[in-house]
Specification:
11 helices, 7-stranded mixed beta sheet, about 25% strand, rod-shaped, two-stranded parallel sheet
């Protein structure tokens, strides 16, 4: 049973004769007759009363034809709706963008860009999932999101990606903290002080702990939290120091930023699964971010 055959069947009953239906469908009458016959053969039933062809009355469906007509009408309406929705999505008047982002970007880099995107594409739905880069990677791998912003080290052969930002990781310290008097801070100097760090599951924490391990040092972790504003308050009051992306520290935070020695940068990429091509809505979102980096 094919959609084309269902369209032929519905047209035949709508117009009441093979001649009129064939004309409306813009096909030859024998072709329409053969299409209906093949449909009946595939279903093993008779669908229309053919003797009506020699009478003045319109062709009528059999009992089986009436049942099929109900289903065929519903199927064809659903197909039409699906085509309409897909056309709307292609025209960016419908669709959803599901994206996972790391906390620092979600809080300090993306908000203004997300609002600008929503202003330009008001009919698209944005679903944002914020967490650690490990959370973003997991959600992308498990197809819980269509796009994720992840670190360069997390890129895999099954992903397509574009570089979004290359941001410096800096030491954040209170202005009266001893580290603030230094032009640059070595990792050994940094790990000599009490620290506030993200909880496990964040690339930022994993990277810092790996550097400490390579130096044979044990970090003095005084506070653990994923709340960036809380991290900044702890740092501002001099209770501990932290490393953060430079974009996170605002002029009114009353926090000093010092580069590491040597300076450290982290690349963050927009990534998606190769076997799941971007939808028009997703592509519009990626293009928008790349234009507004």
């Amino acid at each position: 049973m094919e959609l084309r055959q269902l369209k032929h069947f519905c047209a035949l009953l709508q117009y009441g004769s093979f001649t009129r239906a064939a004309a409306k469908l813009n096909i030859a009458q024998p072709a329409l007759s053969q299409s209906i016959k093949r449909l009946e053969t595939s279903l093993g039933v008779t669908l229309v009363q053919r003797q009506a062809r020699k009478q003045t009355s319109a062709i009528t469906p059999t009992a089986e034809g009436k049942v099929l007509l109900q289903h065929a009408d519903l199927i064809l309406k659903q197909v039409t709706q699906a085509q309409h929705h897909l056309r709307e999505m292609a025209a960016l008047s419908r669709g959803e963008v599901r994206v996972a982002v790391p906390g620092m970007l979600g809080s300090f880099y993306l908000p203004t860009r997300l609002m600008a995107f929503r202003h330009q594409y008001a009919d698209l739905k944005l679903s944002l999932f914020e967490g650690g880069t490990r959370d973003a990677l997991r959600m992308l791998e498990q197809q819980e999101v269509d796009i994720a912003i992840i670190t360069k080290s997390d890129l895999k052969p099954e992903f397509d990606s574009c570089l979004l930002v290359n941001e410096e990781i800096v030491v954040a310290a209170a202005h009266d903290h001893p580290l603030s008097s230094l032009p640059q801070v070595s990792l050994s100097e940094f790990f000599a002080h009490e620290l506030v760090m993200f909880k496990p599951g964040y690339y930022h924490r994993e990277w810092m702990l790996s550097r400490a391990n390579a130096l044979g040092l044990t970090p003095k972790i005084a506070f653990e939290t994923n709340l960036i504003n809380l991290i900044k308050q702890v740092v501002q009051q001099g209770f501990a120091v932290a490393t953060l992306l430079k974009m996170v520290i605002q002029p009114n935070d009353n926090i000093n930023t010092i580069s590491l020695e040597p300076p450290v940068f982290v690349e963050l990429h927009i990534a998606w699964k190769k076997h799941r091509p971007l939808s028009p809505a997703d592509q519009a979102f990626v293009d928008f971010l790349l234009r507004n980096r």
